[in-house]
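re: ur question from yesterday

yeah so i grabbed the chain u mentioned. its 338 aa long if i counted rite. heres the sequnce exactly as i have it in my notes:
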Amino acid sequence: MTTDDPGFCSKRRDFLQIAAAGAALAAAGYVPSAAAQEVTIKLGHVGEPGSLFQKSADEFAKRANAKLAGKAKVVTYGSSQLGGDKEMIQKLKLGTLDMALPSTVMSSEVDLFGMFEMPYIVKDRAHMARIEKEIFWPSLEPAAEKKGLKTLAVWENGYRHITNNKRPIKMPDDLKGIKLRVPEGKWRVKMFEAYGANPSPMKFSELFTALQTGVMDGQENPLTQIYSAKLQEVQKYLSLSGHVYTPAYLTVGTRHWETLPADVRATLESAAKETQAFVYATAVKDEGDLLEKLKADGMQVNDVDKPAFIKASKTIYNEFGKEVAGAQALIDRAVALG
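ran it thru and got these structure tokens back, copy pasting raw so excuse formatting
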């Protein structure tokens, strides 16, 4: 068809008329319907397939999307696809990521979150529920908002245990000289330095290779992260230290959050809090199942002398209480709630 063809001229007139109509509507302030502008809400996390993070995020997305009914859609991205924990936190602050599921890293962003880095401070999930109600929401969450981060719900990463390739860890002294990967949070580094290890922060996505090549001798994580990341393939010993219970926080950046419609925000918050019961129930079930699977895969499992670890933890409690304003009062309150 040439430009002289009558059909071509007709199509060109139709195109110009449509374009002109669109320009006129835009000038008049017309906005397409919400259905035509469905908002995609990206939720990033570092969990591998099968991890508690993956199960939690996907359950939240399912519940939220059912409630949103097309007004917006939550899409999850696991396995550090959108970056490591620190990178995703920065993206939240900049408004280039909608949601993330950080855990330990929050203690490097908001000093008071270091409370959850204190060894053996959380006795069990019932204790954590009391801490959440009486300490987290009144004190920690407002501190996070001052840093541009808002928590929608408190979920779980889990009780952390030590793995390594050198020897069973039964006492803090057994950690001496062991190169141990820890998350990107300064208090975990200080903790394992106090125990005598040689800790180094590292992205979770880099951990398997570091253990496989001997760059690191060991690491510490909940069973769900150990198994889903297949760390049993490159680690021999699993020591059930349970040294820290780490919450996970469904988090948004306040700058971008405020740009979402109020009804969408309310729906997301509601779905986030409702998902907590699923997270805890799944965590409890997985713990027993995963320990048996790790044993079946050849890991040598042992208990630790917890009183010895608690005794070796006194220095970090003292340091945290002195260094962080308001921390000692929160620690005392958390202990009392236990």
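noticed a couple things. The mean pLDDT is 91. also The two ends are 81 Å apart (CA to CA).
anyway ttyl
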